[in-house]
Amino acid sequence: MSITQQIAGPVPAQPLRVPDLNRSLWRLQLRGLMTIGVFFVGFGLWSVKTILMGAVAAPGQFVVANDVKKVQHMSGGVVSELLVHEGSHVEAGQVVLRLDPTVAQANRQIVSKQIDEAAIRRARLEAERDGKTALVVPDTLASRGGDPGVAKLVASEAHLLDVREQALAGRRGQFQERIEQSQDEITGLKAQLDSRRYEAEILKREVETVRGLYAKKLVQFARLSQVERDAARTDGQIGALISQIAETEGKISETKLQLIQIGDDQRESAMTELREIQAKEGELTERLVAAEDQLKRVDLQAPVSGTVHELAVHTVGGVLSPGQTAMEIVPVDDDLEVEARIAPTDIDQITQGQLARVKLRAGNQRMTPELTGHVQRIAADTSKDERTGVQFYTIRVDVSPEELAKAAPLKVVAGMQSEVFVETSARTPLDFLLKPLKDQLDRTFRER
């Protein structure tokens, strides 16, 4: 309102004409329709022309590239020394935990004793095989002659060798005695044979004389028959003696064969036992290697340099179960990767080498940049979260050290949580809007 109007007073309002009002409303409607049209045209052009990158989002966690190393023991045992604590830095090969070696030492001692017994027994069997009367102690035992246990084993096997040799000599003596008896018997039989042969010569001449007298009718036939019977009986006795001598000589030959056989039998028995003991020695050697390996394993060593994590044993005297993880070692100076869990419904969109963006959950979210990486590994099958029962595929995203340096001053370490966005194919906003409708139509037309 101007100063003139204020002095002159209010001006009376003029009535608004209807045509002017209609014209104003029409202009407003036209402007509104134009605005709406421009909006839809602009939105349509944007939804068709604009390219948006799709992405599969998944929770992730930074892990070391070579995985956390577990410290385990195959057979377990009782903890005798605990040399580290949670968070301790260890070097590769450093002893971190020691188990009670009592059982392992006992096993090795038992096997070592059995090996000594087998070795000295083998030496005794070799002596029997070779027909020796003295025991040749193996070098492995001869060098330990001062050991009471070894000395006892040597004395025992030497005594057994002597006893068996005496037994063999006794059996040989028995057979030799039989041979001598048979030879004496042959000597007697030969003497009888000579006597009978001499008697047979006399009877032969007597038969010829009596036959001459009988022919001259000087003696009776009974006398001739008697002399001939005596001569025939003597010839029969001579044949029997010859047969007895041959039979006795056969017994001597048989006894000599038996004498040879007992030596062969003992050697064959020794060789059979020797093969068995050699096989047993091989088995015992393997058991000794296993026992010594078990004794070496009482010292649990760090497989890599790193930091102790998830220490499961806290008390000396505690029991470590077979195969139980005593602790984990997180390697130091190892590359970091992001391990993410992908839903089974999204795994078809993930391929090796795909670009991925990693957003850290720690630190200032506005100041921390997104890191770029690439999908390096994709699990061949699903895993299951034992706590929630949710199934997922595990993927590994490789993030270069240069990208990790962008997070400074925030230091990225293993275990840090993150959000992973794996970029998929590029699509327009219209594709995103129409995809649910297209999927629904596909399912609808495929229903029977």
Protein model, in words:
With 448 residues, this protein is of the alpha+beta class. The chain folds into three domains: 69-93 and 303-328; 104-296, no CATH class; 335-435, Efflux pump adaptor protein, beta barrel domain (Elongation Factor Tu (Ef-tu), domain 3, Beta Barrel), CATH 2.40.30.170. 53% of the residues lie in helices and 20% in strands. It contains eight helices and 15 strands. The chain has helices at 3-8, 18-49, 102-130, 139-142, 148-215, 221-296, 401-405, 429-446, and strands spanning 52-64, 69-72, 77-82, 89-90, 95-99, 299-301, 306-309, 319-320, 325-331, 336-342, 355-360, 371-378, 383-384, 391-398, 417-427. It has a six-stranded antiparallel barrel with strand order 1-10-14-12-11-15. The protein has a four-stranded antiparallel beta sheet with strand order 2-9-7-4, with no helix packed on it. A four-stranded antiparallel beta sheet has the order 6-5-3-8, with no helix packed on it. Helix 3 (102-130) runs parallel beside helix 5 and helix 3 runs antiparallel to helix 6 (221-296). It is elongated and about 210 Å long. Residues 1-9 have low confidence and may be disordered. It is a single-pass membrane protein. Keywords: Cell inner membrane, Cell membrane, Membrane, Transmembrane, Transmembrane helix, Transport. Residues 336-424 form the AprE-like beta-barrel domain. It is found in: Cell inner membrane. This is Membrane fusion protein (MFP) family protein.
